[in-house]
Write a structure and sequence with these properties.
The protein has 370 residues and is mostly helical. 73% of the residues lie in helices and 5% in strands. About 1% of the residues have low confidence.
């Protein structure tokens, strides 16, 4: 390339003459020349194309880069002398020579931020409401109308949600029963009333600990699985395919999960209650010296039917929270694998938070009504 620079004083424009095709090597050389000229204090540079008869897209791309790099450095780089097809091509690409102005940065104020959060919360509340309505209809009303239900799907879900979780639920409640018994025994030993450990463990697990701990374990296990399954189907377009075939997502995917968890969680809660009581019994008979008959009699005297009913009612509401939150977060996913992971995490956090809030509300209600 005849890259000829006409030396001028810093106050005048410097001209670079180009008369041959601009290859990658020659384009890079052009950028170096512009940098050197600007470093000498020349603020205006002319690229003369009078000797060029043809210009391809690669050469034009190097010219665009040269003009933009000069502009960013504070120099004024202009193209002159173009004629014929070269001039037509440059005129066609003229908008690309001017560096795009930076987009203005918009900072929302506090009211706009809060308003956006409120709108998002309202939209999500409507989605959850619609999901609950569909789940209730296809789980309870539609079967009564003869529209059927997928019993095989329900049994499969019970096996996944219930049978597979028995071991971890029982183990955690058993260990927690031992811990609660230890803590209670330390305090009651001061009054020589350690037998009341049996009462405290039994009542605590019947009313609070068994439904709460079982709900948290199931939310981390089953709630996450529900969200991951539906989110994966969503990002792989399986949900859209079902809708396209005229199949109800609520009937085939949500209703079996609702019925399965409503059966599984109360049973798991009862097993958790038994495991917690057994944990306290193990400590009481091995470390405190109580006989089986004495501990068993104290447990039966302490636990009433109303205590067990409280835990049963809580477990049903916890089950509904887990399945609704899991399905909601799974069906609202859009994107790829990263979004599936985020939805699963969000589902578990929401489950645990809402379960604790619901438990607090039930505890307050039973406290003032009993």
């Amino acid at each position: 390339m005849n890259n000829k620079s006409s030396p001028q004083s810093p106050d005048h424009a410097v001209t670079i003459h180009i008369s041959e095709e601009i290859s990658d090597d020659r384009g890079a050389s052009l950028l170096v020349d512009i940098k050197q000229i600007f470093s000498r204090g020349n603020k205006e540079i002319l690229i003369d194309l009078k000797g060029m008869d043809e210009l391809d897209s690669r050469g034009c791309a190097w010219l665009i880069r040269a003009v933009r790099s000069g502009s960013r450095a504070g120099a004024r780089v202009s193209i002159v002398g173009a004629h014929g097809r070269v001039a037509e091509f440059i005129e066609l690409m003229r908008p690309n020579f001017n560096p795009s102005a930076p987009s203005p940065v918009y900072h929302e104020n506090l009211l706009e931020h809060l308003g956006g959060k409120v709108i998002d919360a309202w939209k999500e509340s409507r989605q959850i409401g619609n999901l609950i309505i569909d789940a209730i209809y296809w789980s309870f009303l539609a079967p009564a109308e003869g529209r059927g239900i997928r019993w095989k799907g329900v049994l499969d879900e019970i096996q996944q949600m219930g049978s597979s979780a028995i071991g971890i639920v029982c183990l955690i409640n058993f260990l927690l029963g031992v811990v609660i018994a230890m803590l209670s025994a330390v305090q009651l030993r001061l009054f020589d009333m350690q037998i009341l450990v049996a009462s405290g463990v039994a009542i605590g697990f019947a009313r609070e600990l068994a439904p709460l701990m079982t709900g948290i374990v199931v939310s981390a296990r089953t709630g996450a699985a529900i969200t991951a399954q539906l989110a994966t189907m969503q990002v792989s377009d399986e949900i859209d395919a079902m809708k396209g075939m005229g199949l109800s997502v609520a009937k085939f995917l949500i209703a079996p999960k609702v019925l399965a968890i409503l059966v599984s969680l109360p049973i798991l809660t009862m097993l958790g209650f038994i495991s917690g009581v057994v944990g306290g019994f193990a400590l009481g008979t091995t470390s405190m010296g109580f006989t089986f008959e004495r501990w068993w009699w104290q447990t039966l005297q302490a636990v009433k039917l109303g205590d067990i009913t409280q835990g049963f009612v809580k477990s049903i509401f916890f089950a509904l929270i887990i399945v609704v939150v899991g399905c909601h977060n799974g069906l609202r996913v859009s994107g790829g694998a990263d979004e599936v992971g985020r939805a699963t995490t969000r589902s578990v956090v929401m489950d645990i938070f809402l379960i604790i809030v619901a438990d607090m509300m039930f505890a307050t209600l039973f406290y003032f009504t009993t």
